[in-house]
Design a protein that fits this description.
The chain has 386 residues and is an alpha/beta fold. Helices cover 42% and strands 13% of the residues. The model has no long low-confidence stretch (mean pLDDT 94).
Length: 386
Amino acid sequence: MGLNNCHNFQDFRKLAKRRLPSPIFHYIDGAADDEITYKRNTEAYADVDLVPNVLAGVAEVDMSVEVMGQKLDLPVYCAPTALQRLFHHEGERAVAKAASKYGTMFGVSSLATTTVEEISALVDTPKMFQFYFHKDRGLNDALLERAKAANFNVLALTVDTITGGNRERDLRTGFTSPPKLTPSSLFSFATHPMWAWNFLTKEKFDMPHLSGYVSEGTNLAVSVGDYFSTMLDQSMNWKDAEDLCKKWDGQFALKGVMSVEDAKRAVDIGCTGIMVSNHGGRQLDGSRAPFDQLAEICDAVGDKIDVICEGGIQRGTHILKALSVGAKACSGGRLYLYALAAAGQAGVEKALGNLKVEIERDMKLMGITSLDQLSRDNLRFHNRAA
């Protein structure tokens, strides 16, 4: 299978599995505990049906949205994810350029392998910085100032990683950042020589936002779960989030909100957006899927704050369903990470292009010409009232 034959999410996943050593693939592919929440994130969209209208004159459709002050040409953006140069040597650069080509936002993680300064110089489309709240307050201040100086448009504080999730696939494969050879992983690395060649011959692997502050993950191999559990500040609270919001003094979101009570508090502290997300099922297994929780959060705060649905999205129809419930936009990580692993920038462009084609076609089949025409009137839930 080649890139031209990648027509959907699962096609990219299969190609990524062929291209990546097992520990790297399973780091993207895996989730917490029994991976029940991970599976439910996508299954939730199958529990609601779309009810289309016809004869609506849909020769031209507008797929754009405005979210947290940013005009996006697509109602979906590339959520921030860590360690992207492990998946392809182009890493964040490839994703940034692909997102820019499609006029949508790209999120850069505190645990990125490319700097905010380089991404800012590379693209002028909307950019989000994902902030991890570390015990080291000097590091926190440095992250904030660098994102500000690089003119990032949105700061998103991740609030669902107060400790690492139990990612058992990583325990079995011995995944660490940077990767280390173990008896069980040696064969997999050896049988993926192109990945190994690029990792060993391209620029040295690093997480440059953390360099000079921590050695874990850059010079000292550590699992991501261990990093979250030891380096992030488990005393982080609402006052810390409010202070960070004030210091940023711009578009500010909480990433990982799942309860109505927390959504209301996000409004109270001055947030302009929230990502309804369970971290891709990678933290608390058994938690609700974002789409299942979306309606009550939108009902509570949707008129006061921009609500983004993040998690499990694999199809254009998933995005239309989330927007019908009340989300302003959607975001995802695996929806482009498999494509990045499969073929770098060209892969991410193909994945975003596939989604764009699906959204345009599905809008026409729904009988709408702009996304604000979507509502719960065009949804029917299998097991509950819309």
